[in-house]
Design brief:
This protein is an alpha/beta fold and 201 residues long. It is built from six helices and nine strands. The protein has one domain: TIM Barrel (Alpha-Beta Barrel). Strands 1-2-4-5-6-7-8-9 form an eight-stranded mixed barrel, surrounded by four helices. The termini are far apart.
């Protein structure tokens, strides 16, 4: 079986996260919520970002998509927030949390996501992960996103055995549990994971 890495993801809902304890327990990577929509900033993000780095984890930041908004504005808000927290370093990861249609039809949700991702590639030079659910992708909300690594939320499935929806053919990260904290697994080594991250060259 291919090597796997354990990870967690957090937001302000978890209040104060003990990153040192998680690191001691073998957590190798983390994602922290940074932003939502075009203006909202997670009040815990800067602390989480800095502590992940202090404990030598692979650092990830994610943006919660509001597809009714402007994708360019939301992407710039996300990158600006990361910049204010110390910026990206080699191997850092970013992700788009795409789980709400925001009242829009699937083709418009997918168009928003493609444009948001395009802005991240253009301005930060890395491909974001797409966090989503199989049912949400099956509705067509993720059309055209198959080139981006999939972070699939499949709770109740065995760790590392999620169902992979179209347009993807495989998964990169599986969120398999949400209790008492969101638990994830990456299929590969630390080097494999950081190769999907930021490269300042």
């Amino acid at each position: 079986m291919k090597r796997v890495l354990d990870g967690i993801d957090v937001s302000n809902w978890q209040a104060t996260v003990d990153w040192g304890r998680h690191a001691d327990e073998g957590v190798a990577f983390g994602f922290a919520k940074a932003t939502e929509g075009g203006t909202w900033v997670d009040k815990s993000f800067e602390r989480n970002w800095q502590l992940m780095r202090e404990h030598w984890m692979v650092c990830g930041a994610y943006h919660y998509a509001k597809p009714k908004g402007d994708p360019g504005e939301q992407a710039r808000h996300f990158l600006r927030t990361i910049g204010n927290a110390g910026g990206l370093r080699r191997g850092d990861l970013v992700a788009l949390d795409l789980e709400s249609a925001d009242g829009l039809p699937p083709d418009q949700v997918a168009r928003f996501a493609r444009r948001w991702c395009g802005q991240i590639v253009e301005h930060a030079g890395l491909r974001p992960f797409i966090y989503t659910y199989a049912w949400f992708a099956d509705e067509g909300n993720c059309a055209g996103l198959g080139e981006y690594p999939l972070w699939i939320a499949a709770h109740g499935r065995a760790k590392g055995s999620p169902v992979v929806p179209m347009p993807w053919r495989g998964w990169a990260i599986h969120q398999y549990s949400t209790s008492p904290i969101d638990r994830n697994v990456f299929r590969g080594s630390r080097e494999d994971l950081t190769r999907l991250g930021y490269d300042p060259r």
